[in-house]
Amino acid sequence: MEYRLAAHLSQGWSMTAPYACQPQDSRGRLWPERMSTFRSPWQRDRDRIIHSSAFRRLKHKTQVFVEHDGKEYRGDYFRTRLTHTIEVAQVARTIAGALDLNTDLAEAVALAHDLGHPPFGHTGEDALAALMEPYGGFDHNAQALRIVTRLERHYADFDGLNLTWETLEGIAKHNGPILDRDDAGDPVPSPLPYALAEVDAAWDLELHTNASAEAQVAAVADDVAYNHHDLHDGLRAELFTEEELAELPVIGPAFAEVDRLHPGLDRMRRRHEALRRVFGVMVEDVIAVAENRLAGLQPQSAQEIRDMEGPIIRFSKPLYQNIKAIKSFLFQRMYRAPSVVDERHRVTKIVNEMFPLFMKDPAKMPESWQRAILQAGDETERARIVLDYVAGMTDRYAIAEHQRLFPG
């Protein structure tokens, strides 16, 4: 068995660039475990995330459109938080592989990055953030850390999934450093969401530095995935047309190229062909920019990536400006479309009514959660238990619970 492990280390685990995270250099797990004989530490992290309850619940959590919004095809065709996560993981593996990074770590961070999202997407997050303001706040990245370190309770030896330091760091910092640095490079103290502060207190995640290149890849992959699939979903929802998209940078040239190569193509194929070109432009841009920066800076370790002034993985400035124009269009025509706004009001009301009810009357919660409330030391701890329950709900469960608790 030891030979098998050595063979893996020599035949693939370390065949990455010097600035990639190396499995044999992992800082390990908070609760020490024996090394697997056939999986790297980040392959184990990936597998634990996929098998977690929180990952399965993403199937019925909102990306943009709430599942139960009256059109019977919505749940079949529109992205959910789970399908979005799978797409992010696919993009992350592609980019990480092209840059000789550790694809398993990039994939693990990508698969975990949205575990902390509550029901109803960013609308649910906004509602819970306001409700939790007196109790330490709410942030879905911090909640993801709480899930993987405390709330998943399946293993005999520990709470959570006991993920490696590098995966936890990636979940916390994939969007960039959390704390500022002073002139000496030391962290500048600043208030943190309580869930993030708890994890960082138990195991210093170096919140003042960048994340690994692999985690940065996961963050950019998130941007690529949602900018691409939100265009698809917005068209399917008939919130805008191909003709309107053709007025936008990047997208317009993509439609023009498809029309030149495939004149007379039917509408759905034309749409798909154009948007997959947009997808390709984003991925190729990220890879080209990263290759140029890595060649110029020549980092020799993963730590050098963390200590840089800014991210090494990013869009070029011209494409970033074009993506901003696309995002602005999507914000006005999709995220703030009247039908979407109406739905936001409806689901905000659901969260705003359930949370205070559970705070006032925990007997309305399932028995296991009632026991946890009884053991709470104060109102803040009670609020955090109620938050864990509400944030863990799927859209369909939240809607059903609200109907049960507030009939009519």
Automatic annotation (TrEMBL):
SUPFAM superfamilies: HD-domain/PDEase-like. Pfam families: HD (PF01966), HD_assoc (PF13286). GO terms for biological process: dGTP catabolic process. GO terms for molecular function: dGTPase activity. SMART domains: HDc. InterPro entries: dGTPase, dGTPase-like, dNTPase_2, HD/PDEase_dom, HD_domain, PHydrolase_assoc_dom. Residues 81-227 form the HD domain. Keywords: Hydrolase. Gene3D superfamilies: Hypothetical protein af1432 (1.10.3210.10). PANTHER family: DEOXYGUANOSINETRIPHOSPHATE TRIPHOSPHOHYDROLASE-LIKE PROTEIN, DEOXYNUCLEOSIDE TRIPHOSPHATE TRIPHOSPHOHYDROLASE. Belongs to the dGTPase family. Type 2 subfamily. This is Deoxyguanosinetriphosphate triphosphohydrolase-like protein.
